[in-house]
Amino acid sequence: MLTFVFLIIIIFCIIVLTTQFKLHPFLTLLLAAILMGLLSGLDLNTLVTALTDGFGNTLKSIGIVIACGTVIGTFLERSGGARKMAATILRRVGERKAPLAMTITGFFVSIPVFCDSGFVILSALNKALSKRTGISLAVLAVALGTGLYATHVFVPPTPGPLAAAATIEADLGLIIFWGLIVAIPAAAAGLLWALFFARRFVIFPDDLTEQPATEQAESQPGAILAFAPLVIPIILIALKSLAEYPTVPLGKGIFCQIVRFIGHPVIALMIGVFLAFTLKRRSASASYLDWVGTGLQNAGVIILITGAGGAFGNVLRTTDLGENLGRMLSYWQISIFLPFVIAAILKTAQGSSTVAIITTAALISPLLSPLGLATPLAKAFTVLAIGAGSMTVSHVNDSYFWVVAQFSNLDTATALRCHTLATLVQGVVGMLTIAILFWVLV
């Protein structure tokens, strides 16, 4: 029971420090790690060593990947590449199926771009579609918002799943593959909520001046260029996982070695960065250096929080907390549901999905073996279960909630009914999908 009490104290401290004292998650996680070490009776030198080793080892494996992924997202935002992806999908699906088109657009855009930024970028298109088609803005807002949210928590190179993969030492290719599969029913659940619940709220945009279609087209890159920085790295990472499959389907020769090299997340994402460079028009006033610098600034915060999460996890592994708590929880037979529950509590309490993912991964990493989650596939599903919890639920303490509400003319009560309940449905559907796959495959 003392072990369980320690865990409750740590979670409570994290919630209070981030919500009441507004302390940055980087410092919160470091303080939580130090407190955990002191409560567990670690020698002070051992505690400091565990803290610094955990920080360094985590960033060694994931720091470059997060930086490259954020740079790709910045280029997609600023070049108009994200809007081009939306226009391409909308043209294929048709304006009368605008909610479906916006869900699909959000699904793809949010893989490299933060969901908050993605919604801001595409909100003007949402309003224009509402005006042209007569579809309530509430429907389109939920369709886009839940589409963005699905891949934001499940599919790397979004920083949250990337950080969890590093902390848990899970295979990135497996997470991408199964994350895309799990994200589909989660996005579909959000779309259905938009179509059958949000439609009862009749909301239309205020008068807006649309940018002329010709001007829009001139300011955007081509469709192939827009999709390439996102799709090609994912394909390369997936091929690497295929090459390393026990049956060696790609053989053991030079081709396999090349695939394993260019499919390493660091190399694949660097290739994505150079593909993203093609999105920038030479006539644009900002330089490549400006856009890369902006991306790296955005990445810096995520990298530091990720490193702090790694330090926290390493301190937990150094203590006997993981072993004792895992032994106790193993009797409850909750296995894959524990990461979901912890992430959902942290998400609901403090608002940030990324912080919830990183913190939960650090808490869960010492418990993998006792919970029967130590195999490569089980680790991948653990990361996804954390992702499902981190979307349950988005409400008033979440910046994304206010982005969706303010850019879609939704008052707070309507946003709670439409957006917040949609994220609850998404999280539950995502977790049920993960549980079924886990029981069948693991």
Give a verbal description of the structure.
The longest helix has 36 residues, at 44-79. The chain has one domain (2-441). The protein starts with a helix and ends with a helix. Residues 208-217 have low confidence and may be disordered. Helix content is 76%, strand content 0%. The chain is mainly alpha-helical.
Q: What is the number of helices?
A: 20
**Biggest β-sheet description:** none
Sheet/helix structural class: mainly alpha
* Helical content (DSSP H or I, runs of 4+): over 70%
Indicate the overall shape.
Answer: globular
Mean pLDDT across all residues, rounded? Answer: 85
- Radius of gyration, in angstroms, nearest whole number: 22 Å
What is the element string, with H for helices and E for strands? HHHHHHHHHHHHHHHHHHHH
Number of domains: 1
* Parts with pLDDT < 50 across at least 5 consecutive residues: 208-217
Q: What percent of residues are in strands?
A: under 5%
Distance between the termini: 30 Å
Beta strands, count: 0
